[in-house]
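Researcher: I'd like a structural prediction for the single chain below. Treat it as a standalone chain; there are no partners to consider.
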Amino acid sequence: MTSTESIPPVNATRVLVLNSGSSSVKYQLLDMRDSSRLAVGLVERIGEETSRLKHTPLTGGGGEREREEPIADHEAALKAVAAELSADGLGLDSPELAAIGHRVVHGGLKFTAPTVITDDVLAEIERLVPVAPLHNPANITGIRTAQALRPDLPQVAVFDTAFHTTMPESAARYAIDVATADAHRVRRYGFHGTSHAYVSRETAKLLGKAPADVNVIVLHLGNGASASAVRGGRCVETSMGLTPLEGLVMGTRSGDVDPAVVFHLARVGGMSIDEIDTLLNKKSGLVGLCGDNDMREIRRRVDDGDEAASLAFDIYIHRLKKYIGAYYAVLGRVDAIAFTAGVGENAAPVREAAVAGLEELGLAVDGELNAVRSDGARLISPEYARVAVAVVPTDEELEIAQQTYALVGNPS
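Model: Treating it as a single chain, here is the predicted structure.
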């Protein structure tokens, strides 16, 4: 930070993490002395007739509070969040608050690390809106509102794309005309970066090694899903591209398709660009294949003999295996495969099926270990397996808080 930028108060150890979506705000307040959570919450359906705020203080013995009322915009939402925190003695005016960390989805090539938000930084985030039209505008709204509430406090942007900026050009470039690609910023950026960074480090810790000594394939499997190949703590390949549409089969997104599908649907199907965009992002993936995007329901249907659900599950696993094999080849040596996020952490059948048949690559899952449900990081591979298979719960909010606090520090 320069002398003209805000600095945190002396002895301030708290960080508020904000994840602003188009109609929601997720938040967590953490104390960075021990990375403990002081409060968590969610405001959703912002701008609708009835919005909902759910707030849970994690100190002082208070229970979850929930209310439904009209919340017109993000400014009103953050003021409501501030009021809830104040009711617990954790208000935004607290001298213990060191900074506010914001999840920003797209940072392009310029932002390769967490960054204190200035006017110039905010202008660059705005310039990236065309490549992240669903996410960056909401992130910007959250930043501006937080700045208005605490103009004296450091605001830090932590970018989903930053962890992937270490990819070599051979992985990041698409094989299209270079001048056209550069003019329109067309390249592979990757997303879920805070999760991939956190999980790859935690996997190394689970193995008792330093991140620099470990090669990991991270599988972030939620409604959105992505894979990354991490060599020595640095991302060298990831499945999402210019946007979060490319790669694995997801809840409502198609993942990889022949680009000519777009031309075919426009010319033969008479669909507009907007209709095709909606099809591939919101009506494809698991929901397009079988009508459900909840893996729990899909597995229930599979067990009941539902053919559509069975095919959707098989397609999901087939794509997943392709990426495991491809990233194994990219890394050359793999020490671990880590499953994370909602599906990766909770769906034992997905983990078992993804690894099945890959014994020649040193991969195997122990059925009993895989069936155990736990909130902690754990190995689910047998002792004889050459490659560790792990379940590592992600913690993107903690990662954002840690990066934010490491940047602003404590001036004392």
